[in-house]
Amino acid sequence: MKNLISANQKGFTLVELLITIAIVGILAAIIVPRFLQGEAARASEALSQLAAIRLGEEDYRTNNGIYCGTDDACWTDWSTITMDNPGSSPERFFDYDVTTNDVDSFCIVATRGDFNPSGNAFAGTTICMDNFGSYFGDHPKGPGFGHSPGSGTGCEGVC
């Protein structure tokens, strides 16, 4: 009877393949949560900046009787609402915009930029805050967001 396995036959055994797959799975289980934790920290940057901008808008309204958005004639720069431009730092992760709907309401939108040359899966996602301090948006790990990135269910129609 012929020997079914020759001495010079090359290839991987099933055990070697299973061990390799297990190692890759373990590494993925370690790396993916760390990536999401980092994104949650970046989202907290936006949440704190949105709260600061909201306070600046409320202060402006107290002094002038109206809200002033970045697209309004009363807007000169971020010093209008007594703060530095939150998007001017090179370490930033979001761009910010304030829109006034009328004299009694405003909406602040933080849009996740793609500041990484290799790309960013979360670029374009948004977090919004209205004049009541309610958060909306589609950024992961934010309070009550629950939408996937790029789903188009962010701030549209909210503010």
UniProtKB/TrEMBL annotation:
One Pfam family cited in the UniProt record for this chain: N_methyl
Subcellular location: Membrane
SUPFAM superfamilies recorded: Pili subunits
Annotated TM spans: 12-32
Membrane topology: Single-pass membrane protein
GO biological process, one term: protein secretion by the type II secretion system
Keyword Kinase included in the entry's annotation: no
Signal peptide: none
Superkingdom of origin: Bacteria
Keywords noted in UniProt: Membrane, Methylation, Transmembrane, Transmembrane helix
NCBIfam families membership: IV_pilin_GFxxxE
UniProt protein name: Prepilin-type N-terminal cleavage/methylation domain-containing protein
Species for this entry: Candidatus Abzuiibacterium crystallinum
Lineage of origin: Bacteria, Pseudomonadati, Candidatus Omnitrophota, Candidatus Abzuiibacterium
